[in-house]
Amino acid sequence: MGKTASISHVRIAKSQCPICLETHSHNVPVLIHKELKDIKEDETWCAPSLCKEHDEMSKDYLGIVIISNDAPKEPNAVIKEEQANRTGKYVMMRRDAANELFDEDLSKLEFIFGDLELLNVLKALTPTKH
Ligand SMILES: [Zn+2]
């Protein structure tokens, strides 16, 4: 028996879903070390991207990631990922419903941040599931 060839210079990248924070390898590149050296496990992170489930939903649903930040001084302010105080809650809202609720065109966005106040509004709009 020969020695098993190491293929650790080829790895599938890891990404994190910005909506549910799940670690996944959906739609990520395969990494190949250009000098065929080992790629370490912690070197495989690539930019955040949607997991399979949320990628499939994103055509019809807008993700609303609930954060506990204080309300911004300006309406529709942009909150950077590193500034967001995630609560771990998120809501997938049908895009047609989101279009009615928000004045802005959100069709190009995969998700938005919303505060707890918005979550209460959404809860009031959504019929309770049994
Ligand atoms: Zn996800």
Any chance you could write out the topology, listing elements then pairs?
Layout lengths: L9 E3 L2 E2 L6 E2 L5 E3 L19 H6 L3 E7 L18 E9 H7 L9 E5 H10 L5
Parallel strand pairs: 5-7
Antiparallel strand pairs: 1-4, 2-3, 5-6
Zinc ion binds next to helix 1.
Tell me briefly what this model is:
This protein is an alpha+beta fold. It contains three helices and seven strands; from the N terminus they run ββββαββαβα. It folds into two domains: 34 residues, no CATH class; 68 residues, no CATH class.
What's the overall average pLDDT, rounded? 88
* Total beta strand runs: 7
* Overall geometry: elongated
Q: Provide the low-confidence segments as ranges.
A: none
User: What's the N-to-C terminus distance?
Assistant: 59 Å
Instruction: Name the beta content range.
Output: 15-25%
Order of strands across the biggest sheet? 6-5-7
Largest sheet composition = 3 strands, mixed
- List of distinct ligands in this structure: zinc ion
Helix- and strand-based class?
alpha+beta
Secondary-structure element string: EEEEHEEHEH
CA-based gyration radius: 19 Å
How many helices?
Answer: 3
How would you explain this protein's 3D organization?
The N and C termini lie far apart (59 Å). The strands form three sheets. This protein has a three-stranded mixed sheet. The longest helix is centred in the last third of the chain and has 10 residues. The protein has two domains: 34 residues, no CATH class; 68 residues, no CATH class. The model has no long low-confidence stretch (mean pLDDT 88). The protein is α+β, with helices and mostly antiparallel strands and 130 residues long. It is built from three helices and seven strands. Bound molecules: zinc ion. The site of zinc ion has 8 residues, from helix 1.
